[in-house]
């Protein structure tokens, strides 16, 4: 979908549909909504008086102009309460508009900047949120639907702005929003793909292609190179699969001489649990959903591509170890001991705790760049879903500054994060009797035990672990993320949050 910004008057704009808005509690519409209402003879005010339109968030009302104005249809979108309305409200309104227009079979629409009259909303930020919301809200994964004529999509959204002095800034923001939303939707596409379409080799190729388009350096290490480097933890997980593992290294240089920020993403392209076979319906969901156990790898690849498209003045490295976790005659067994990249030995108590094994090698390998900080992203534990549900991301860190950066970014993007403890008291959970560390603790504090394990491999660097097991996948019910810009399936979390964090990095 193209996003255009043009000067003009929405009441006289010709398009397949025009979208205006209404705050909750407004008795008489004003601004652009009022102008269209007057031109149509007052149907919006009449709907308000009847109680059919209350302006509640995501409420919509279609009107037919019948030739009174140039557009064929008018859509009114509720913004919710005016108090507290901010950038995420703009993003949600744009998403609601795009989804509603798309579902009506309309291919093109024009809209005003939602909440434009609210003080404190910067035009550039509003333009970014409009583009983000529309592109995220209109997203659907339909690659495998054969009845192509039934697929509904959007061709264009035109943001019509009456104040010419705001056009340049809204346009600049919209261009950023397009780049960010495209990267989020890349991560969604990769996570939504079935695993037969994204073996480690195939997924590495898809990431290579995205990196090439974003002008990001990409190197793919094969099994022989991983063996040479001593990545015994990744190779141990890969043993049960006929598909060879890959290790993707992405590098972006935006500022000469600056130490990079390293992003590390778990890339299990399908997770059966291995010999410790998963139940059909575990806390992470039914086994078929384990196709998205590579969400972390998709997120860090999409993030670095967005960073490159935005030309941020920062250096970033993204590492993505890719493998399947399968049972088989050669599969890793409970009780096996493997040696990670940094030389530490790991007792594998449970082969279904494989994500932390591949991350152990990747976290150790990240030290090669002497990074300012390391941030890993993983659908790591069902325990974090039990603890926090599916509405936020669990966070662990050894650095207060990193936590402040993440909380600031989350506030800007409308994401929810919650820090869980990582006290040394939990270290005995992963103490092994036969090796340096074991890959699981006991029945309690499962997500904390996972983070305590990972902490052993970061070498004392500033580090943050994002457990997105709950927030990475939207089931479409009340348990999950409720924003208008999320659809069932992969959410794309935490790409926008990481991009925002890196945008703000040099200001922190």
Protein architecture, described:
- This protein has 508 residues and is α/β, with parallel strands linked by helices.
- It has two domains: 160 residues, Leucine Aminopeptidase, subunit E, domain 1 (3-Layer(aba) Sandwich); 327 residues, Aminopeptidase.
- 34% of the residues lie in helices and 20% in strands.
- Strands 7, 8, 9, 10, 13, 16, 17, 18 and 20 form a nine-stranded mixed beta sheet that branches. Strands 1-6-5-2-4-3 form a six-stranded mixed beta sheet, with helices on both faces.
- Helix 6 packs parallel to helix 9.
- The mean pLDDT is 96.
Indicate the radius of gyration in whole angstroms.
24 Å
Compute the number of strand runs: 22
- The count of helical stretches stands at 14
CATH homologous superfamily annotation of the largest domain: Zn peptidases
- Proportion of residues in helical segments: 25-40%
Main beta sheet: strand number and arrangement? 9 strands, mixed
- Low-pLDDT windows of residues: none
Q: How widely separated are the two ends?
A: 34 Å
Mean pLDDT: 96
Q: What is the CATH domain class of the largest domain?
A: Alpha Beta
Structural class: alpha/beta
CATH topology of the largest domain: Aminopeptidase
Query: Which architecture of the largest domain per CATH?
Result: 3-Layer(aba) Sandwich
Strand content: 15-25%
């Amino acid at each position: 979908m193209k996003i255009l910004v043009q000067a003009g008057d929405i009441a006289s704009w010709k398009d397949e549909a025009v979208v205006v808005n209404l705050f909750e509690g407004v008795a008489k519409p004003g601004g652009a909504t009022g102008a269209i209402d007057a031109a149509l003879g007052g149907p919006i005010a009449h709907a308000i008086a009847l109680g059919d339109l209350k302006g509640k968030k995501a409420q919509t009302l279609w009107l037919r102009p019948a030739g009174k104005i140039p557009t064929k249809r008018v859509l009114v979108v509720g913004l919710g309460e005016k108090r507290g309305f901010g950038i995420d409200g703009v993003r949600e309104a744009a998403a609601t508009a795009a989804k509603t227009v798309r579902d009506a079979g309309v291919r093109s629409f024009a809209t005003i900047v939602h909440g434009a009259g609210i003080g404190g909303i910067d035009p550039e930020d509003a333009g970014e949120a409009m583009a983000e919301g529309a592109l995220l809200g209109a997203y659907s994964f339909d690659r495998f639907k054969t009845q192509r004529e039934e697929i509904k999509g959007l061709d264009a959204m035109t943001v019509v702005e009456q104040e010419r002095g705001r056009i340049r800034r809204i346009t600049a923001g919209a261009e950023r929003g397009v780049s960010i939303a495209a990267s989020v939707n890349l991560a969604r596409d990769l996570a939504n793909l079935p695993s037969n379409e994204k073996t480690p080799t195939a997924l590495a190729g898809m990431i290579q292609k995205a990196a090439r388009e974003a002008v990001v350096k990409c190197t793919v290490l094969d099994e022989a190179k991983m063996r040479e480097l001593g990545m015994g933890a990744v190779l141990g997980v890969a043993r049960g699969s006929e598909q060879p593992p890959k290790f993707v290294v992405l590098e972006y240089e935006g500022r000469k001489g600056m130490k990079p920020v390293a992003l590390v993403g778990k890339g299990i392209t399908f997770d059966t649990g291995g010999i410790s076979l998963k139940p059909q319906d575990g806390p992470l969901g039914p086994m078929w959903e384990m196709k998205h156990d590579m969400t972390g790898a998709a997120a860090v690849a999409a993030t670095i591509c967005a960073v490159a498209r935005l030309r941020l003045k920062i250096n970033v490295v993204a590492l993505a170890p890719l493998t399947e976790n399968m049972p088989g005659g050669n599969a890793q067994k409970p009780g096996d001991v493997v040696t990670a990249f940094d030389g530490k030995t790991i007792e594998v108590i449970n082969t279904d705790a494989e994500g932390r094994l591949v991350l152990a090698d990747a976290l150790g390998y990240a030290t090669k760049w002497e990074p300012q900080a390391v941030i890993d992203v993983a659908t790591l534990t069902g325990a974090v879903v039990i603890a926090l549900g599916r509405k936020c991301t669990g966070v662990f860190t050894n650095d207060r500054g990193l936590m402040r950066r993440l909380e600031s970014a989350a506030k800007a993007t409308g994401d929810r994060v919650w820090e869980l403890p990582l006290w040394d008291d939990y270290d005995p959970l992963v103490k092994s009797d036969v090796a340096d560390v074991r890959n699981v603790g006991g029945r309690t504090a499962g997500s904390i035990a996972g983070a305590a394990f990972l902490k052993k491999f970061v070498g004392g660097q500033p580090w943050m672990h994002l457990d997105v097991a709950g927030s990475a996948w939207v089931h479409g019910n009340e348990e999950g993320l409720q924003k208008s810009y999320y659809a069932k399936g992969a959410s794309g979390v935490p790409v926008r949050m990481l991009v925002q964090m890196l945008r703000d990095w040099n200001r922190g």
